[in-house]
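Entry 12.
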Amino acid sequence: MVALSRQGPLMTISSPGAETLILAWILAASVVVLWQGRVRFHGSPSQLRQLAAGQVWTSPEDGPGAVASWRTESGAYRVLGPRPSPAAEPAAPTVEDGYLLVTARSREEAAA
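Predicted 3D structure (tokens):
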């Protein structure tokens, strides 16, 4: 953290909520995702978003093996991970999608 603070202003946020990620997207030139005291990602908000490219789907059904999924207001599922079904359509990734993928993979590695 000290080394990062030498690169310019440093803001530490400890909450992973959507509002926090939107704030990071707007204000931050660089984002660091820490998991259990280790840096799991360091880059721009755009780079964090791009980590999820090709792994975000809108689907009429939840996906087995999904890293994360949730039902949206439209009733469809937003699924992170492998394509859940042939009916699934690719969706544009967000910073939150990238964050969820980084932290989910960190949890999987810790459990292994």
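Annotation: The chain is about 35% helix and 20% strand. The radius of gyration is 15 Å.
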